[in-house]
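[stage:ingest] chain + small molecule (uridine 5'-triphosphate)
[stage:ingest] validated
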Amino acid sequence: MNLESLKSQLAKYSQEHVLEYWDELSDEERQSLAAQIEDVDFETIATLVAGKDEKIDFETLAANAETPPSVRADGSGAKWSVDEARQRGEAALRAGEVGAILVAGGQGTRLGFDQPKGMFPIGPISNRTLFQIFADRLLAIGKKYGVAIPFYIMTSDATDAETRAYFQENNYLGMSPDDVRIFRQGTMPAVDAKTGKLLMASKSSLALSPDGHGGTVRALDRNGCLDDAKKRGVKCLSYFQVDNPLVNVCEPTLIGHHLLSGSEMTTQVIRKRYAMEKVGNIALAGGKVQVIEYSDLPQKAAEATDADGQLKLWAGSIGVHVIDVDFLCRASQSTSSLPFHRAQKKVPYLDANQNVVSPSEPNAVKFEKFIFDLLPSAKNAFVVEVLPSEGFAPVKNADGAENDTPKLAREAIVAQHRRWLEAAGASVAEGVKVEINPRFSLTPEELATKIPANLHIDADRYFEA
Ligand code: UTP
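[stage:predict] done
[stage:export] tokens:
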């Protein structure tokens, strides 16, 4: 570390204030602050603060937006059948060509849980954590297809240590440690919304936050995960977020749709309930599949319908994708593949009187990359609909909120498993909770082979592995 070169670097971008307390710091604190500063891409920050980064004209884009190439939940829209897709996906799984990437670096502020969100107990009867539910599913799929599915887990400074300790203390949740790779995403500094100056969290630390789920691309590459995937013969990754216990990780039909469409990135979506619903909208615009955030979507474009009177922009993003490893390798080498988005946030900071202030109003701008911004550069990007009841029950807010709560997610799990049991010939008494570990059964069809005929369930029941 060279103090003079740090100073001149900072002076070039008018950010010298971050060294204001340098003389008071211990050697260790100096080293850590210097490392943080060296990691900052000042040129990018300056461009973002000056608003000189490339801006997308969403109004024009949305005005010309069309329905993207897609297959509906009933299988319509594709040139192949659902059975063909499932068989294709199963062949890829059997050949060991599929891995899983979980993004678990978010700060989970809305849920207000003081550990990484993956450690949140969500099993309605089992109380299994989100991490356990995902690991059970990957183990079940691995067993079914005779392979070990590599599980890449992205953490951040906020979640890394506890996530690693959790996996170690819990025997990697039954997975082989060789198949679980935990890696940390990058950070971005928050800047003062009025001045563009980097905020300090303390005298020896910048106010840093994770660089968004789009940080996955660089972090996968930097941490050797893409090389590892290639070495294993993994061709595509099933991408998912930590907050969705219903997610169809490594689901054969979804993977089959991805492969049969020749797509480099396929995104699973739900059908919007109404035109202005607050979800990212998947659209075909300018010949490319892209996400238009609800906040950027003019009402007229949102309400546009096709010849059948259906919303053109019916597809809402749920953060579930299948992404080719080769495409991720390409994207990781291009600095322009993912733009930064800005968000006004409340960020605690060290003020001029050396007090750490927790602001009550947004005071800062944070910069984040979003993974779905890869879609426009993916060849043949494709969209696959899933019914929310079969694939989307996010845990975002604490119980008591109107939507996306743990209570609602648990109800969705019970409702899905009740449907599976009923489809398999069982009857379940009113008000009774049921939960099925994927290691007991992955599908209703498999369940039918495992339970006795005419099974009646009249008390809460967990079907264990
Ligand atoms: P959210 O957008 O819900 O953000 O993340 P969050 O930080 O988890 O929650 P809030 O907004 O503070 O309440 C969607 C998914 O992306 C991951 C999260 O862990 C979650 O799985 N994520 C988000 C990251 O891995 N890194 C990030 O920098 C941001």
